[in-house]
């Protein structure tokens, strides 16, 4: 139906209707003037098919009725031939016209339904991705914002002291500025990821990035009574990834590790972060001494909106996976083997290309 419309969008419907009228008159004349044996009335089915393409169901039904009336009239007016054959031909013609109209209208209804469903699906996909984007930003920005509030409160306390501790207040302000910068970086990265842009990969020191993130998580770790152990491989080759992405992944894993250890005895609440080189890749791991992974968690861990926490969003690990993969790496979880319980998350990160071919993009994929 749409092909014809697309090809001749300017054709006035009146012209088509007139052409159909001429054709119907011709079929009527042919059916009437030839003898009963010639079932010219079946050509009315062509009229119905054209009508289905161009006109509303009501017009199609009207034209169908008209075609049937014309078939009956031409049967009555046909002067010659075997009457019985004519009767059978007339019945066949009328059935063919009615069935064509019925099937044609059904087809148009199905096409309309399919079109409607496609439009609806597009709308749903758009709102879902918009909702997911908003939720991701809210999720990722929540942590730096909470840190800003904590540091702001600390800053206020240092300033309220008599005499004010300006050095400490200055440090708190520095943390606020760092967190605010990180929040705005995070938004920029998520937006560019949602637009399908490639991450901005650069060469950087993975250990430095980990130390920086550890510093930023200090207040939260303190608040939850969790110790952080950094076991960073010395003289690590530079990493080749989007530094902010890797830090966001680490931030999410640290938060999850802290959440998982809420039921762990205070003395055992420890997160170990390691870095190491493995062939042409770097591996970052985050191990906790928490509740470990349930069989259900193992299958749904990285699904968007899958959470076991009452106030969870279930987006952290989904974002982590997107970011790890966008940077050519991989992320997966295993049980912790050196302790009674806990989970280890592993992320692979590409090493920076050797100096000289660093200008080329994309390069090594984990
Ligand atoms: N370190 C961990 N130990 C045990 N379970 C975890 C750990 N990290 C994540 N999970 C499980 O995976 C789920 C999804 O995590 P995530 O995507 O970060 O969303 P959220 O933290 O909002 O629940 C969590 O609700 C939790 O059940
Ligand atoms: Mg989480």
Automatic annotation (TrEMBL):
Q: Which residues form the signal peptide?
A: none
Q: Which residues cross the membrane?
A: 12-30, 36-52, 59-80, 86-105
Q: Which domain of life is it from?
A: Bacteria
Question: Which EC number(s) are documented for this chain?
Answer: 2.7.13.3
The UniProt record lists the Histidine kinase domain at: 136-353
* Catalytic activity annotation: ATP + protein L-histidine = ADP + protein N-phospho-L-histidine
Q: Which UniProt keywords apply?
A: ATP-binding, Kinase, Membrane, Nucleotide-binding, Phosphoprotein, Transferase, Transmembrane, Transmembrane helix, Two-component regulatory system
Q: SMART domains attached here?
A: HATPase_c, HisKA
Return one GO MF term. phosphorelay sensor kinase activity
Question: What Pfam family is a match, any one?
Answer: HATPase_c
The UniProt entry, under InterPro entries, shows: HATPase_C_sf, HATPase_dom, His_kinase_dom, HisK_dim/P_dom, HisK_dim/P_sf, Sig_transdc_His_kin-like_C
Stored SUPFAM superfamilies: ATPase domain of HSP90 chaperone/DNA topoisomerase II/histidine kinase (SSF55874), Homodimeric domain of signal transducing histidine kinase (SSF47384)
Q: Which PROSITE patterns match?
A: HIS_KIN
PANTHER family the record matches = PEROXIDE STRESS-ACTIVATED HISTIDINE KINASE MAK3 (PTHR43065:SF10), SENSOR HISTIDINE KINASE (PTHR43065)
Name of this protein: histidine kinase
């Amino acid at each position: 139906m749409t092909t014809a419309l697309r090809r001749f969008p300017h054709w006035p419907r009146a012209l088509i209707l007139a052409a159909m009228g001429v054709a119907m008159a011709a079929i009527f004349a042919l059916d009437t003037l030839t003898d009963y044996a010639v079932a010219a009335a079946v050509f009315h089915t062509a009229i119905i098919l054209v009508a289905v393409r161009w006109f509303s169901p009501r017009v199609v039904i009207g034209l169908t009725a008209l075609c049937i009336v014309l078939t009956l009239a031409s049967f009555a007016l046909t002067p010659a031939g075997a009457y019985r054959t004519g009767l059978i031909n007339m019945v066949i013609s009328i059935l063919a016209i009615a069935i064509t109209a019925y099937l044609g209208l059904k087809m148009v209804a199905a096409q309309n339904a399919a079109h409607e469903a496609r439009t609806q699906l597009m709308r749903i996909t758009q709102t879902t991705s918009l909702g997911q984007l908003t939720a991701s930003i809210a999720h990722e920005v929540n942590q730096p914002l909470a840190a800003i509030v904590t540091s702001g409160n600390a800053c206020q306390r240092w300033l309220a002291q008599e005499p004010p501790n300006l050095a400490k207040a200055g440090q708190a302000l520095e943390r606020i500025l760092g967190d605010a910068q990180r929040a705005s970086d995070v938004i920029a990265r998520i937006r560019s990821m949602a637009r399908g842009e490639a991450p901005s990969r650069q060469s950087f020191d993975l250990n430095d990035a980990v130390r920086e993130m550890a510093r930023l998580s200090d207040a939260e770790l303190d608040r939850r009574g969790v110790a952080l152990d950094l076991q960073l491989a010395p003289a690590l080759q530079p990493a080749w990834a989007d530094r902010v992405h890797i830090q966001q992944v680490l931030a999410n894993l640290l938060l999850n590790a802290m959440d998982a250890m809420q039921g762990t005895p205070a003395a055992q609440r420890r997160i170990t972060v390691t870095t190491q080189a493995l062939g042409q890749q770097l591996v970052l791991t985050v191990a906790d001494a928490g509740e470990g992974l349930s069989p259900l968690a193992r299958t749904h861990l990285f699904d968007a909106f899958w959470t076991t926490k009452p106030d969870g969003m279930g987006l952290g690990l989904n974002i982590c996976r997107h970011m790890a993969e966008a940077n050519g790496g991989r992320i997966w979880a295993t049980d912790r083997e050196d302790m009674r319980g806990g989970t280890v998350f592993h992320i692979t990160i590409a090493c920076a290309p050797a100096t000289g071919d660093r200008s080329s993009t994309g390069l090594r994929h984990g």
